[in-house]
Amino acid sequence: MQPQSGAMQRLTRQQLATLIILTLAWGVNWPVMKLGVTTYPPLTFRALSIMLGVPVLALALVLLKVPFRLPRRHWPELAKLTATNMLVWHICIILALRSLSSGRAAILGYTMPIFSAVLGAMFFSAVLSSRAWMGVAAAAVGVALLLWHEFTGLAGRPLFVGLALFAALVWALGTQLLRRSRIDVQTLTLSFWMTTITGVVLTVLAAIFERSEWRIPDANTSWAILYNAVVIFGYAHAAWFYLARTLPPVASTLSVMFIPVLGVFTGALWLGEILHWQDWAAVVLMVVAIGSVLWPAAGSKG
User: Fold this and answer.
1) Domain map of the chain by residue range?
2) What is the pLDDT of residues 128-159, one digit of tens each?
3) What is the DSSP annotation of 99-120?
């Protein structure tokens, strides 16, 4: 698959609907996850969410008559895509989330589109248009504004800030690799095996590091686990992989920049996090970032 240029493209109705649902599902999930891991071991929370989501994905494959088989020749690339798109992300971000506010963890995690655009230009021969760079710049300024009141607090938690940023960097690399993947299977099949492998690894890590903390989750944690199992791992990840494989990397990544904004505002609503003028200004900048890659160029045909 050839690297994509910086040219923008009009979303199909299916892509647009997928993007809207994905944004709502992932944006709302940040305070949901925070609620889940506040009093529950984070790796165990994530492992339970994934392993309960695997049967949901499997049912989708059966109902849609999508084959489970992934040829052996693709296994090495599957391992690489799983590590960069899911495994590192889920381990690092769930550990960081326990010590950071939900909205700010979302912001740090969604520096991914910025990393992705830069990595694409530096290492994957991506030629970005001026509009694409404008979107990257707007997203970067928006992230900085959203972190305005957190710099002092974050300074005391450098490990967790670093974990969130490292998760975003590796996910950005994974997005670039996924767009260029030569695995010739349907996205649902790829999503199923990436999710299953990640769930197994996280279960092993949870057993090694958190077994002494294992207990029956309370009502809030149980609800958070079920939401993640059904909505996030049963739908959202497969939806994201679909967008990442069908849109140019810069479009697929910047197009989800409204997720951390939604995370900030839902966190404020549910968890009482305080909003400032910078949060509102960031909303405008995120809209600019999204529009820069998704608004049709003059003279384009959809």
Assistant:
1) 13-294
2) 778 778 878 887 887 777 677 666 555 556 78
3) TS-HHHHHHHHTTHHHHHHHHH
